[in-house]
């Protein structure tokens, strides 16, 4: 998904475009649900049901109505917070999503922290040493971060660090020994364990989190390092940098205090959008590590023809991405006075 803010559009104009964007998202998910050759009624009653039972199920789901009436009914249900019932779990899809989304949030958040912690310094150093072997080396690492398939990288990580070296636990979010010991509060397992005073459970949950977050974070490192380098190069060409150097300021202060300080506002936007990309793009990582998050939930639902769950999960991912896009626009305008109206 790209950014929905048109060039030159003010923040309020972008805010006004949100309903149109959400409507488009709803339309896309509705069309996907009708184009995919999976009959929701058949998934509900089973392939051994009689023709009468199948027809009754189609009527109950409203599939016998014209498409425009089905779409209006879909809009009304979503407006009420009703994303349908999951055939696979037998629970409301919204309830399922609320249960699994914190796992994705936990994974993407740590991956973003790693991406910022490694990507920003790498980008600054690459810009400061432009054209040197350090710059070329960091750019190669960034290229690998973009190019290496996350599925393969995850499997290799498990093979090396789990199967061979035994440095990290295996797939999953927690060892079986610790399951059920912590009552879910926030849904973030490490946080919940700490709130419950279960230090051993928190350590085990964090150990399970490190490898998948590192694999996912590699892509964030590549994106953030590349953008940091580009922003820093632009700042280093400005006259105030020359002035600061002529005043005798140390190179470290020029780089980290002045250049990075002025690049921080657009860089913050890049970080927010990178976070949004990790939230929606962690599907393969969750599959490889059996991580019970939203991506794993959507994939498992698709394999079982549970279209309510697939469309509901997709809709939530799109809504989160739109919200973070809007947040990045708002932060940019709040932190950069040049974007405010006179």
From TrEMBL:
According to the record, the segments passing through the membrane are: 12-36, 107-128, 140-163, 205-225, 255-276, 309-328
Q: Which SUPFAM superfamilies match?
A: MetI-like
Q: Which keywords are on file for this protein?
A: Cell membrane, Membrane, Transmembrane, Transmembrane helix, Transport
May I have one GO cellular component term?
Answer: plasma membrane
- Per UniProt, what is the membrane topology? Multi-pass membrane protein
This protein's major location comes to membrane
- Gene Ontology molecular function terms on file: dipeptide transmembrane transporter activity
InterPro entries membership: BPD_transp_1_N, MetI-like, MetI-like_sf
Q: Where is the ABC transmembrane type-1 domain positioned along the sequence?
A: 101-328
Localization per Swiss-Prot or TrEMBL: Cell membrane
What domain of life? Answer: Bacteria
The protein's matches in Pfam families, at most eight in alphabetical order, are given as: BPD_transp_1, BPD_transp_1_N
Q: Which residues form a coiled coil?
A: none
PANTHER family (alphabetical)? D,D-DIPEPTIDE TRANSPORT SYSTEM PERMEASE PROTEIN DDPB-RELATED, DIPEPTIDE TRANSPORT SYSTEM PERMEASE PROTEIN DPPB-RELATED
Which family is this protein grouped under? Answer: Belongs to the binding-protein-dependent transport system permease family.
Q: What is this protein called?
A: ABC transporter permease
């Amino acid at each position: 998904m790209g950014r929905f803010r048109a060039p030159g559009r003010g923040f309020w104009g972008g805010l006004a475009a949100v309903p149109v964007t959400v409507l488009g998202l709803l339309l896309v998910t509705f069309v996907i649900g009708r184009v995919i050759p999976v009959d929701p009624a058949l998934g509900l009653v089973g392939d051994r049901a009689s023709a009468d039972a199948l027809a009754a199920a189609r009527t109950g789901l409203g599939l016998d109505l014209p498409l425009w009436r089905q779409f209006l009914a879909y809009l009304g249900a979503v407006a009420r917070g009703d994303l349908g019932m999951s055939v696979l779990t037998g629970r409301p899809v919204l309830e399922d999503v609320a249960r699994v989304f914190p796992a994705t949030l936990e994974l993407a958040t740590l991956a973003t922290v790693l991406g910022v912690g490694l990507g920003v310094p790498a980008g600054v150093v690459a810009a400061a040493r432009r054209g040197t072997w350090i710059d070329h080396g960091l750019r190669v690492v960034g290229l690998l971060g973009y190019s290496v398939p996350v599925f393969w990288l995850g499997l290799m990580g498990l093979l090396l660090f789990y199967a061979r070296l035994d440095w990290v636990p295996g797939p999953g979010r927690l060892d079986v020994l610790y399951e059920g010991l912590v009552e879910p509060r926030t849904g973030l397992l490490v946080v919940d364990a700490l709130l419950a005073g279960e230090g051993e459970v928190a350590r085990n949950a964090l150990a399970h989190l490190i490898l998948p977050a590192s694999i996912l974070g590699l892509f964030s490192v590549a994106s953030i390092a590349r953008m940091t380098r580009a922003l820093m190069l632009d700042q280093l060409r400005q006259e105030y940098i020359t002035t600061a150097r002529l005043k005798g300021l140390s190179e470290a202060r020029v780089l980290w205090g002045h250049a990075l300080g002025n690049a921080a506002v657009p860089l913050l936007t890049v970080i927010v959008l990178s976070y949004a990309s990790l939230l929606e793009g962690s599907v393969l990582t969750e599959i490889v590590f059996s991580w019970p998050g939203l991506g794993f939930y959507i994939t498992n639902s698709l394999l079982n023809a549970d279209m309510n769950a697939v469309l509901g999960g997709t809709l939530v991912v799109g809504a989160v991405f739109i919200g973070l896009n809007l947040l990045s626009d708002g932060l940019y305008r709040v932190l950069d006075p040049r974007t405010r109206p006179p």
